[in-house]
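Weekly structure sync, notes
Attendees: PL (lead), two postdocs, one rotation student
Agenda item 3: pending single-chain targets
PL asked that the sequence for the first pending target be pasted directly into the notes so everyone works from the same version. It is reproduced below exactly as submitted, 416 residues in total.
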Amino acid sequence: RPKDIHLENLESVHWLSNSRSMSVCGWAVLAVAVALGYLVQANLGTLAYGKELGFAAAEACALHQLPTPCEDLTAFRPGALFAGGGDLWSTFALGSEQAVAGAIYLVEGTKVTPLPILGEPPKLVLHGIYFSARSRRLYGVNHDEATGESIEVFDVLEEDGVSLKHAGSIRSPLFANFALNDVVEGAVKDEVYVTEWQAAAFPAGGKRGLSSAPLELRLKRALSSPLTFFKVPLTRVFRCTVSTQRCSVASSARFVGANGIAISDDRHTVFVNDAPAQRLTVLARQPDGSLEEVSSFGLKHIVDNLEMTADGALHAGTIPFPYASASVCQEAPALSASKVVSGRRVSCGAQPGGLLEIGLLGTGESARGKSFVDGRQTDILTHDGTALDGVSSALRVGAKVVLGSPHAKGLLFCDA
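Predicted structure, written out during the meeting:
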């Protein structure tokens, strides 16, 4: 005959089972909390609260006033470069209709000249730009809502001075509103690669239009900052054919915010800067034009635009103190800070930036292509942010370093 099972024994078994369940749940919650804390702490590190850095003397830099910021620069010929004028911050906030029309400037020494453009391009709200010495073409990412997100293509004419001829526009269903960032020409002049820095489109009319945007878009935009903070890779690189305007996703690689892009002189290797991740990815061009990741490496600062120099190094505009960047100050003010660095006040409205030179070392070649790591990363110059708030691009021209910003008007010329 089986033994009697008393009620108190059943209650003990039930209590023990609940205790074990609560213990498992408790440990699970604790594990999630620890992991979240680790992620927060790790990502706060990229804001560089404790970084120390020296600055150029104030008298070494002079601002050339312009109607708009110049977010990107690209080398043209020895002693000269192009600058792309675009009223980006106003566009992102209020839409392109409210933006001041931009221009393309020729910079020779400290002389800055707006270039005449033949043809009828859309209103210029330029982001990243690239000049190809092979095809004599200038490409620019453009944010004009009236005609749509695009890559604008210009032929560079050099008869009786320098001028531009609008050769066409590239538009695609893949291009979300204000989501493109930077562009380079590929192996031939009929091929371009363009980065996507935003995983979610901006609403029509910029942030001002968010309240009337569809719920799905509002949710995506609300998640944009947290996803960036926690470094969730969602953005892409596209490959487009100029003559057909057909675009496709170029690579399986994903980025937190694919930003500046550069290409090697032989057009076999593409470099993509993932700014929020503070990392540079090396991609090899495959025979079909697709890109395959072959290596990557960390950067000493967050950087923005990239340019391949004649001697095979990369030049980048730096964001060494992200806690004072306009993005953090506007989108996540609780993470911003005001600190004294090398005797200068670093804070919102005075964000330092400069020119970082990134040497490249080849690490071999496989069936996929050449891989590279960084050889040496050298700060050529850092401005303290008092004359130009924030830097997105930086290049040498003659004896000067030229700095451009995504939101501060003009160009800053500093003694190299």
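Discussion points:
- Confidence is low (pLDDT under 50) at residues 1-5.
- The CA atoms of residues 149 and 347 lie 33 Å apart.
Action: rotation student to compare against the earlier draft before next sync.
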